[in-house]
């Protein structure tokens, strides 16, 4: 059996980043920058302004009463120049008037009949935000090769950028196979089950930064499977198939892919999972995942998610890993590395992990209840109570 690392290395080999798309900055949340540093065309802020509501004046005048000569407000007309002994009423964010070098907050001054009396000696440059105190004109602002956050969108907008070059989301066609599958919402007949893999894997694609194309589930018929495969690969960058990739009498996916392109069938030392098919059709990757829903989602997490991130120019799987102590004996196959469904919580003495429920590859409820996958190495048949293991966080800590 291949190790997880060996399988992942083969899957990532030869993958290249998607091309760049130009999109509005307002639509860039979660997208991955495709260009280099962004050059600031102007100062941010573009002019010196007040950090407080108060009075703009000259600090050198001390506590001498001032004449109120005008007002400066954000977006308003230019305020009069502050001469010695003068003051201008100013609002937060409003431009500093010429001649003023300090702002006295409203609560530290009193206005009476056109005269302003300050209660304490002003400090030079107090409550003044200089032009460019955030970003100077001409500064090259590097954008991290990570998905865009709201604060980055705010920065780009403040710098005057309406558009941004980002990596195109990889398109992934999702195909579930099996005579027993019917869509959710359709009444079940004898021997039928609702297709869970299709919607779950499509959601996993979106979470990883891709764009999912959910194909209609295919029955165990070679001609129908071939039609779906051709349909999916007509527009997608990658095809992910669940079920039907083994060598059973009604497993036709493997044969279809081999006729259309090339396919390898791997046994990987991973639990849940183990069987994984990988090949290419017309240069596009095809991944065959196990049919059991937990196995499909866990192997997607381990192998397909890093592939999508590589296509976006990102490194690794983007997940946080912590060390968590387990106080129970959780059984596993000693020949394989296990990814057990657990709930991890933070405590004063570190992280703790407890089983989220049954560990069978057909049980979705424990995976839906889990916030982490506990990694138990090969060579172990059971977790040792009191010992710590690495865990991949899938959600927030309790």
Task: Give your account of this protein's structure.
The chain is α/β, with parallel strands linked by helices. The chain folds into four domains: 4-15 and 169-311, Molybdenum Cofactor Biosythetic Enzyme, Chain A (3-Layer(aba) Sandwich), CATH 3.40.980; 22-41 and 135-167, Alpha-Beta Complex (Molybdopterin biosynthesis moea protein, domain 2); 49-129, Beta Complex (Molybdopterin biosynthesis moeA protein, domain 3); 321-393, MoeA, C-terminal, domain IV (Beta-clip, Beta Barrel), CATH 2.40.340.10. 19% of the residues lie in helices and 30% in strands. It is built from seven helices and 26 strands. It has helices at 4-12, 150-158, 197-207, 222-233, 253-260, 293-311, 364-369; strands spanning 20-24, 38-39, 49-50, 54-57, 66-72, 86-90, 102-105, 109-112, 115-118, 128-129, 140-141, 163-167, 171-176, 181-182, 193-194, 211-214, 238-242, 262-267, 270-271, 275-281, 284-289, 321-326, 337-347, 350-355, 372-376, 388-393. The strands form seven sheets. Strands 7-4-6-5-9-8 form a six-stranded mixed sheet, with no helix packed on it. α1 (4-12) crosses α6. The longest helix is centred in the last third of the chain and has 19 residues, at 293-311. The chain starts with a helix and ends in a 5-residue tail after the last strand. The mean pLDDT is 94.
